[in-house]
Write a structure and sequence with these properties.
With 279 residues, the chain is an alpha+beta fold. Helix content is 47%, strand content 20%. The protein has seven helices and twelve strands. The strands form four sheets. Strands 7-6-5-9-8 form a five-stranded antiparallel beta sheet, with no helix packed on it. Strand 5 and strand 6 form a beta hairpin. The longest helix is centred in the middle third of the chain and has 35 residues. The chain starts with a strand and ends with a helix.
Length: 279
């Protein structure tokens, strides 16, 4: 139903496209199922019934889509367990009120093209309250899954698993064999034009034909930090950082880099905690 993604904070990824389609279809059938007093099969063949189902399906699908988008965005900005009240306010504004307003606008447009005055129908009185209820339920489902997902991460972090011994040397291909590199000599590792480079404290540079993520898995997390998608920096190479308002951090390294190293706002707290903890 859901899939996991890694963006530096172990955040959940919510409904996939297929599940959004299935949920929208189920809700549409539940809301538009003919009553027992109506002619059952005759109702299914009516054009007005097809239009009502199509409008309901599109409205619910749009609602779930925007709840997914806004909730994922808020997950990257404010975690529920760290900034509860701020997150709750923005979740109400973006995760609840915005999808409702978008659905109302879509319904108004669809009725307009059908040459029907939406205020003269039962839609505002009946469907509006149902949309609010559906929106509340989808938001609650997102919250429940968020805490289930995050609790599994918390439990795995506190399980007391023994940490593997830090790797003291890396072995990288050099064309004929492998070259032995002491991790203590590494200042930072970066990717440029699809090639991985190892920059040493003494300004020497090695080309490494290994993916950055594969190298990071071998390194000691107390001594190395993946600051960006393209840079892994060592504790000893960090000369300092500057806070960038509403953006994150700009990190200074030794030796200096050709491009600025900007740690994202979501990763900035983790980077500061890592930097202030002696390896």
């Amino acid at each position: 139903m859901h899939s996991k993604k890694s963006d530096g904070k172990n955040l959940p990824d919510y409904f996939s496209f297929g599940w959004m389609m299935l949920i929208s279809l189920c809700i549409t059938l539940c809301l538009n199922w003919p009553t027992m007093n109506s002619r059952f099969w005759h109702t299914f063949t009516q054009d007005w019934y097809h239009i009502a189902c199509a409008n309901t399906f599109a409205t619910v699908f749009i609602m779930i889509t925007f709840i997914n988008i806004f909730t994922s965005y808020l997950d990257s900005k404010w975690l529920w367990e760290k900034e509860l009240w701020k997150r709750l306010v923005f979740q109400i504004l973006l995760g609840f009120m915005s999808p409702i307003l978008i659905c109302y606008f879509f319904s108004w447009v669809s009725f307009y093209f059908l040459n029907v005055n939406i205020s003269s129908t039962r839609y505002i009185r009946n469907m509006s309250s149902l949309l609010v209820l559906i929106c509340i339920m989808i938001n609650l489902l997102h919250m429940v899954y968020y805490y289930i997902y995050r609790s599994s991460e918390w439990l795995s972090d506190t399980a007391g698993k023994p940490k593997p011994a830090p790797v003291l040397y890396l072995f990288i291909p050099d064309g004929k064999g492998e070259k032995k590199i002491a991790t203590a000599t590494i200042a930072y590792i970066y990717v440029e034009n699809g090639t991985t480079y190892i920059q040493h404290h003494n300004s020497e540079l090695d080309v490494c034909f290994i993916a950055l993520d594969s190298i990071y898995k071998k390194l000691d997390e107390s001594s190395f930090f993946k600051a960006t998608r393209s840079y892994i920096v060592s504790f000893a190479a960090v000369d300092g950082y500057v806070k960038i308002p509403h953006k994150g951090l700009k990190v200074r390294l030794r030796p200096e880099t050709q491009e600025p190293i900007n740690v994202s706002r979501s990763k900035a707290p983790g980077f500061i905690d890592w930097l202030k903890t002696d390896p």
